[in-house]
Amino acid sequence: MQTSDETLQGWGGTRAAGIEIRSDDLPSITRGAVLTRGLGRSYGDSALPPPGTHQIPGCALADRILSFDSSTGVLRAEAGLSIEEIQRVFLPRNWSFPVLPGTQFVTLGGAVGADIHGKNHHIDGTIGNHINEMLLRLADDSLIRCSRKENDDLFRATLGGMGLTGHILEVEVTLKRIPSPWIWAESERVTGIDAFIEALADAARSWPYTAGWMDALVRGDNLGRGILIRGRWAGASEAPARPPRPKRRLSVPFTFPGWVLNSLSVRAFNNFYFHKHPRRAKRGIAHPESFFHPLDVVRRWNLIYGRRGFTQHQCVLPEKERPGATKRYLEALTAGGLGSFLCVIKDCGSEGEGLLSFPRPGISIAVDLPMRARTQEIVNELNERVLEAGGRIYLAKDALSSAEHFQAMESRLEEFQAVRRRWDPEGRLRSAQSVRLLGDPA
Ligand SMILES: Cc1cc2nc3c(=O)[nH]c(=O)nc-3n(C[C@H](O)[C@H](O)[C@H](O)COP(=O)(O)OP(=O)(O)OC[C@H]3O[C@@H](n4cnc5c(N)ncnc54)[C@H](O)[C@@H]3O)c2cc1C
């Protein structure tokens, strides 16, 4: 059993007093607990305990593979198994986790809790679409299975339910069969936001994986310029014969001083990154880690934001219903003047089954924002744009939204809360985020 120190943090640096208890005996440590934590890759307070709770279980050491059927790809495992480990074991056997987020340091429990999406959302949906069954510990400590056939309301509320419906002990997921463990990737420069939205839609027609990086500091005609990325699993005949080996990783050695990241340095980085890409499209075989998880190459990269940390604002804007929403969002962002060197754009497919699943058809934008005096004001402003457009924000990234904004965006909230009341009538399962956004008692 391991315990961390006395403060728990989200990936962006949001802190709460408390300790995480890790053990490979997840059924024991979740007994009586109010929330379970994975690898802490959610940015804000979704994996932090509510005020007054000192200790929460962490599932990362409960990472056994329980069964695998090599004819169907059905994998059953404990909730702490990470995507990194699944890819290490299964990629060389021509199977992949079906939905890959921007980092592979994510547990099965965390993937289900946030109902994660990836570059293939427009085709394969969220991870929830690939989950067959789960074993949960409920608030009253009983164990229960849920699936589309059994306790389906609990199943749907748990996908994207941010740990608020029960502790996930085991997950059954169907892996994706792939022709080779390598990626065929293409990338090209795009000159502005209208062109970007069009290029994403165009790529989505023939590519399973699409996304883009945008320069979130330029204004005027260049607003929304960036680099579009598209890819597919390489065919056996185009790929190298050997499976890819894990990339060598660097690590940020200490927390950077706050002044390192300022609008000048971010502007310089964005300019460099955009112009470094050749004018012509780049094509070729890529390592799956570089394609899916480029940020993982630098461990603890979050420390470059300094002690004050950062937040991410990720929203989805239903462009088809209210055209121009993405442009108005970016204009509000650039007017805020904080600058972000990570701004990811993606067109989403259909809404997930999860009652609080984030994606819905539209354009998703994710921007990192350093924590400064103005950050709260900027997040409020961005949320106003999201509300105006009829969009919503991603809970796994959020640290600063108000209950008022979130509840106004989330038409499915009543149904979610009704399921929670049914399975947890005393309201025991809570997080720092559910106290902030859903009005749960502290
Ligand atoms: C660099 C980076 C890139 C990212 N890119 C993407 C992306 O492309 N797409 C995307 O969807 N997300 C993305 N994310 C967010 C990340 O996928 C989610 O935050 C994910 O939930 C993190 O998993 P975790 O194991 O660290 O869980 P944690 O952050 O520890 O927990 C996340 C939530 O799941 C709950 N939870 C965890 N384990 C359990 C369990 N066993 N039982 C019940 N509840 C549990 C927690 O209570 C919490 O509410 C990214 C994050 C980073 C840092």
Q: Mind explaining what this structure looks like?
A:
- The chain is an alpha+beta fold and 442 residues long.
- It contains 13 helices and 22 strands.
- It has helices at residues 26-29, 83-90, 108-114, 121-124, 152-158, 193-206, 263-276, 288-292, 325-336, 375-389, 403-409, 413-423, 432-438; strands spanning 2-3, 7-9, 15-17, 19-22, 55-58, 65-69, 74-78, 95-96, 131-137, 143-147, 167-174, 176-177, 183-190, 209-214, 226-233, 250-251, 282-286, 298-299, 310-317, 343-348, 362-370, 392-393.
- The strands form 6 sheets. The chain has an 8-stranded antiparallel beta sheet.
- It is globular.
- The two termini are 28 Å apart.
- Flavin-adenine dinucleotide binds at residues 11, 35-42, 46-47, 59, 79, 101-103, 106-107, 109-110, 113-114, 116-118, 162-163, 167-168, 295, 396, 431.
Descriptors:
442 residues, 22 strands, globular, binds flavin-adenine dinucleotide
Secondary-structure topology with pairs:
Elements: E1 2-3, E2 7-9, E3 15-17, E4 19-22, H1 26-29, E5 55-58, E6 65-69, E7 74-78, H2 83-90, E8 95-96, H3 108-114, H4 121-124, E9 131-137, E10 143-147, H5 152-158, E11 167-174, E12 176-177, E13 183-190, H6 193-206, E14 209-214, E15 226-233, E16 250-251, H7 263-276, E17 282-286, H8 288-292, E18 298-299, E19 310-317, H9 325-336, E20 343-348, E21 362-370, H10 375-389, E22 392-393, H11 403-409, H12 413-423, H13 432-438
Parallel strand pairs: 4-5, 16-18
Antiparallel strand pairs: 1-4, 2-3, 6-7, 7-11, 8-12, 9-10, 9-11, 13-15, 13-17, 14-15, 14-20, 19-21, 19-22, 20-21
Flavin-adenine dinucleotide (FAD) binds next to α3 and β11.
